[in-house]
Hints:
alpha+beta, Fructose-1,6-Bisphosphatase, Chain A, domain 1, Alpha-Beta Plaits, 2 domains, eight-stranded mixed beta sheet, six-stranded mixed beta sheet, 16 strands, about 25% helix, about 20% strand
Amino acid sequence: xxxxxRRTFTQYLIEQRRRFxxxxxxxxxxxxxxxxxxxxxxxxxxxxxxxxxxLRHIGAPAEQGLVNVQGEEQKPQDLIGNEVFVRTAExxxxxxxxxSEEMAEPYQIPPGYHRxxxxxxxxxxxxxxxxxxxxxxxxxxxxLRLPDAEREQGRDVxxxxxxxxxxxxxxxxxxxxxxxxxxxxxxxNGVVGFTLDPTLGEFKLTHPDIRxxxxxxxxxxxxxxxxxxxxxxxxxxxxxLAGRSGPRGKDFNTRWIASLVAxxxxxxxxxxxxxxxxxxRYGYLVGTDEAALSPFRRRYEWAVRHPLDADxxxxxxxxxxxxxxxxxxxVAHTAPVDDHHRCVIQHAAWVPRDGGWVFEVQxxxxxHHMVRFLVGTMIDVAQGRRPRGTLARLLVAPDxxxxxxxxxxxxxxLRAVTYPExxxxxxx
Length: 428
């Protein structure tokens, strides 16, 4: 079996424990119990309506109309999930008690088990109301410390023991059960994410430094409750919905799937094939020989019959370099008055090849149709239909009224995309 240089969940916890030489290891053991519960829940959710054979001996179908402490209807998976977390964590000797969304009272550690110093709070299956439509669901957990004075008394835990300020959490996290199973965790030293390796049954570190982005273009809210919103919330949502013409000056996407873990996880700056990119390189093929008219080459390049002035091509390409608004190269009737199309051209050059040319261009954003407008204009200049310097003049034009027709789409290809080093797998 091939080895991986990705750290497992256990290895990560060991490394964190080394920061505290006097630590007893009880927290590590408790977190491992939680991770086992999350693995069991991932399996149970994956079986769906078939039911997980390994969990058929626990839980019972929820009675119709039965609600939890939040007033939400309990699903069979809620009760099964509650049993999974309770049975997995109660025996280890690390807990003084537990509290769950599915239990009206705190759960007391049975007399036959050793009592520890921690409290576990959890929602075993967040988003269960949407599980029938197969969307991502998850589990949420928090670990608190029972005050020493309360432990010494040896009494049962009460609701008051769990009502502690958030800053007193020892650890917290959530699991997401979707196309992959993710476990997100903080122990007070940043936020990290693990992905379940189904072949080994191990969580492996895949997201070593998760942060909420400073800015976003997405928000999630249940608009059916808008009549209950406080004025500041309503104002914020109205500003987002106003889009680019509103006070926030940009368009927003809104999504709502009634699963907190899925919505919260969407806000983390995970890898995104478009927004995470720092550079994009395109190529556009132009054929100038007789063979360019063949049905084979015409499928992927633009056949240009008239000769091209090489000096004109190179001169126009140099004019593209640098930062521009590119308003003149936007699709007709969409050129905005702001700098929505502004980008930086990092490389632009015409390179000769057998049977023609290739225009290579690299920018800090996706150019899409703009490459075709650029090529169409440069070919016009190289064939003498427009004077040299046309591109330099168009780059400062307020609209696309004088832009040449775009080159055919068949010659354009996206050749490479560059991402920050943090987006690449390390040591695989």
